[in-house]
Amino acid sequence: MFQATTYSDDRVKSYELLIKQLDALTDGEKDEVAILSNASALLNQFLTDVNWVGFYVWKDDELVLGPFQGLPACIRIGYGKGVCGTAVKEKQTQRIADVHQFPGHIACDSASQSEIVVPILINDQVYGVLDIDSPNKNRFDETDQTYLEKFVAVLEKHLQ
Hints:
Elements: H1 8-26, H2 32-46, E1 52-59, E2 62-70, E3 76-78, H3 82-90, E4 94-96, E5 114-122, E6 125-134, H4 142-159
Antiparallel strand pairs: 1-2, 1-6, 2-3, 4-5, 5-6
């Protein structure tokens, strides 16, 4: 339904529609699990060439597995550990073309080749991360990063 294409204008329009759908889907909802569950399902439906889409939530000084789409995953990730923990430590998106070249990569799914992790910040405090894995190297580009960061901004608004 929302398959991204190779044409950059179409991808941008598709991402903009996706973000509008997330905003409408989460409007008025206060339950965090419901919001994150629908967000992961929406992304999983929209994105091509991904094998895991989900969230980790910051609890008791570590990331804890939240709603996701994909194979079973690591349940807890420490601060600064792997791509997700690094995104928390640096409070910056991590776009990794080849996870096997990332020092300290945590391999929850051996099929994953590339990854993007966007931190979720509420009032400049880490709430958690959006984590997306792909079985293809170099899957995520600047367009993905820009629009996934906008997607997370909508989530941040609804999670406050």
